[in-house]
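Slide 14.
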Amino acid sequence: LDIHFIHVQPSNTEGRRVLPLLILHGWPGSIAEFHKAIALLTKPRKNHDFVFEVVAPSLPGFGYSEAARRPGLHSAHIALILKNLMVRLGHEKYYVHGGDWGAIISAQMSALRPE
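Slide 15: predicted structure.
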């Protein structure tokens, strides 16, 4: 399944921890909802010792992500697909946030990797 995603790394990380954050949109929705938030999350702030690296995928069947070709793709499958995406990007541990349908997938991902 081909998953479209936006991957934004902070430009200036000097002296800051970089925290990977996977953000998931809801239904109906798209990653366009996160446009302004991504800019804020990846911008270093005074008095913060961290900044986020953001990954925002289009869920299967949304945006430019491929839709399932046969029935049966559910939240646990999508959670595994997105976990594998994060591993491919070099992240074994990361934060995840989702709204609506994205929250269901986030909960499934937390069950896969509770730490």
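Speaker note: The first strand starts at residue 5 and ends at 8.
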